[in-house]
Amino acid sequence: MAGKAPQKAAKKAAPKRSTVKKAPSRKAAAKAAPRKPTAKKAPARAAAPKATASKRKSPAKAKEPRLLSGGNPQIAKGYGDAPVQAYIEAMPGWKRDVGLRLDALIERAVPGVSKAVKWNSPFYGVEGQGWFLGIHCFAKYIKVAFFRGMSLKPVPPGESKSQDTRYLDIRENVPLDEGQFIAWVKQASQLPGERM
Predict the structure, then answer these.
(1) So what CATH class is 67-190?
(2) Exposed end of the chain (fewer CB within 10 Å): N or C?
(3) pLDDT tens digits for 43-100?
(4) Opening angle at CA 90, ends 188 and 140, nearest 5
(5) Boundaries of each YdhG-like domain copy (predicted)?
(6) Which residues of 8-23 are buried (b: 16+ CB within 10 A; e: fewer)?
(7) Buried (b) or exposed (e) across 132-169, using 16+ Cβ within 10 A?
(8) What is the tens place of the pLDDT at every residue in 172-190?
(9) CA angle at residue 195 from 193 to 196, to 5 degrees?
C-alpha cells in the first residue's frame, strides 16, 4: 500500500495540462506580421466630387410627391391651406376632383376652418378645439374620418375600431350626397375635436 499513496499525491500536485496549442488571436497575428508599406492617401477635402452630384435636382423645381401604397400621396407635415392643396394636387386620377370638391364643401360649411397635413393625410379643425375630420386615399376609394362621428345625426355608415370615429367611403362613379356631407361637417365642427 505504500506504493499507492505517492501516486495520489503526485496526481494532486500536478494538474493535467492540454497538449493542444491555441492558435494566436487575429490581433496578435497582425502585430507579429511584417507591415507592408502603404501609399499616402489624399486628404478627403481634395477628393473629386462623386458622379451622383450631377443627378441633383435644381432647387427651382418642386419635388414630385410620391404615392404610398394604396395611392395615398406622401406630403410633408405642414399647417395651413398650402400643404392641403399640395396633397389634393397629388391625389391620383378621379380622386383629385373629389378632393377639390370635399375641400370646397368643408370651407363652405365651416368658414375659417383650420387645415393641416399630418401622417400624409389632410386634417380639418377649429382653432382651439382640435381636429374634427381627416381624409385619406386608398386604392379604390377615399376615406373621410369623422373623429366624433358617433355623435353625428345620422351616424356616418363606416365603422371604426375607435369608439367615437365613423367613416364615409367615397368611391368612383358613386355620387356624393353633398347635403348630408355638409350637415355632418357642420355638426362635427361644433363638437370637441381630437388633439393630435
Answers:
(1) alpha beta
(2) N
(3) 444 444 444 444 444 444 456 677 787 778 999 899 999 999 999 999 999 999 999 9
(4) 70
(5) 95-188
(6) eeeeeeeeeeeeeeee
(7) bbbbbbeeebbbbbbbbbeebeeebeeeeeeeebbbbe
(8) 999 999 999 999 999 999 9
(9) 125
Q: Which of 161, 151, 145 is nearest to 192 (CA)?
A: 151
101: helix, coil or strand?
helix
Grid cell digits, residue 181:
356631407
Angle at 167 between CA 161 and CA 173, to 5 degrees: 140
Give the span between the Cα atoms of 103 and 159, in whole angstroms. Answer: 23
Could you state, in order of their start, the residue ranges of all structural domains in the chain? Answer: 67-190
Specify the pLDDT at position 34. Answer: 58
Return the percentage of the chain with pLDDT > 70, whole number: 67
* pTM tops 0.85, yes or no: no
